[in-house]
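Bumping my old thread because nobody answered last time. Still need a sequence for this structure:
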């Protein structure tokens, strides 16, 4: 006999569970992941499942749960994405991998105080172990928990596309957690280490830019404060002597040769500049043949709100003209170097960050080469 499902009730229950999750302290990381997944109601699955793109939920199962368990189901599926259990299965067998993953994330949820179902896999002998370690300790054919089915599905994407998709979600979720002021330790250590590797800058900032900026900020000439000896007849720079970066401009090439993935990689590098050098502000300029958009960045929240606006050809002259008018302390330009040098000359220190064009050179400023893997 088929069961008539009140889908309106299921939708209301899901909305309440999401609101409850958002209202729970130190959960911005998981909330962001949940809202990154596309919901599909599906009565053919026993409980809930995810492939990193979609979140499937059986409405009958969901309505049978307490409000606390409904929220826990959302966190449970978000945890599978956070650990990338669908991308890490490799040559392992299902459902053994799924059961190992369930033990790990349910133990983590229980430690955080989330409600755990009576038949959920949550053996305390596996506390502190990784999914790989639990998998190695389970029998080859573990007994399935009563009423529970496998909730990890293969990703619909190719391997590289899936890896980039999960990385984007986790970086966004971690930044949202920091912006919300979640306390340290709210993201499991294994996941935190993985995200930190994702966020490690491609460029050796600490070896190249740090010395450059320190020299610039301690003893360099700046047009932000014209020399009184020559002003107003000549607009000449004066020697500055503070230790702080005050006004940094970063121009990002969004021409047709630059993909959205490339832009995301550049934003990750800008995040590192913001975190490491702590300028009072960063003026982020998106340009192709002209300046398309300008954002003033003072914190991570401002950076996360930036939108990719490309695309067209490439012309650096408008960026030089903007710099000569606004006189930033330094100008960094992210580009692949696919343009002809303009006749305009910038009147501030310039650092070229050239990706995927190892033989590109410039007579102006300092050049740093790096690769963006696609």
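Sorry it took so long. Here it is:
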């Amino acid at each position: 006999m088929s069961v008539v499902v009140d889908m309106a009730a299921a939708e209301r229950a899901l909305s309440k569970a999401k609101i409850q999750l958002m209202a729970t302290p130190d959960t911005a990381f998981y909330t962001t992941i949940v809202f990154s997944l596309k919901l599909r109601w599906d009565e053919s699955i026993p409980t809930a499942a995810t492939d990193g793109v979609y979140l499937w939920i059986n409405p009958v199962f969901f309505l049978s749960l307490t409000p606390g368990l409904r929220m826990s189901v959302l966190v449970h599926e978000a945890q599978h994405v956070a650990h990338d259990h669908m991308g890490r299965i490799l040559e392992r067998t299902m459902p053994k991998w799924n059961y190992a993953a369930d033990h790990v994330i349910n133990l983590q949820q229980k430690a955080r105080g989330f409600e755990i179902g009576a038949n959920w896999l949550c053996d305390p002998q596996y506390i502190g172990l990784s999914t790989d370690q639990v998998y190695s300790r389970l029998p080859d054919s573990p007994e399935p928990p009563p009423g529970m089915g496998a909730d990890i599905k293969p990703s619909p994407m190719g391997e590289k596309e899936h890896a980039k998709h999960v990385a984007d979600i986790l970086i966004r979720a971690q930044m949202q957690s920091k912006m919300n002021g979640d306390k340290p330790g709210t993201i499991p250590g294994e996941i935190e280490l993985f995200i930190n590797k994702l966020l490690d800058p491609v460029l050796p900032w600490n070896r190249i830019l740090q010395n450059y900026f320190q020299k610039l900020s301690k003893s360099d000439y700046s047009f932000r404060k014209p020399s009184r000896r020559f002003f107003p007849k000549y607009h000449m720079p004066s020697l500055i002597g503070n230790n702080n970066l005050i006004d940094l401009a970063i121009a990002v090439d969004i021409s047709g040769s630059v993909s959205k993935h490339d832009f995301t990689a550049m934003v990750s590098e800008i995040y590192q500049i913001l975190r490491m050098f702590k300028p009072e502000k960063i003026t982020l300029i998106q340009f192709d043949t002209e300046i398309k958009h300008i954002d003033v960045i003072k914190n991570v929240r401002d950076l996360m709100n930036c939108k990719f606006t490309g695309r067209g050809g490439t012309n650096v002259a408008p960026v030089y003209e903007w710099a000569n008018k606004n006189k930033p302390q330094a100008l960094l330009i992210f580009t692949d170097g696919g343009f002809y040098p303009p006749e305009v000359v910038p009147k501030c220190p310039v650092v070229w960050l050239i990706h995927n064009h190892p033989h590109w050179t410039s007579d102006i400023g300092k050049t740093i080469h790096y690769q963006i893997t696609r």
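The two ends are 51 Å apart (CA to CA). Let me know if any region looks off to you.
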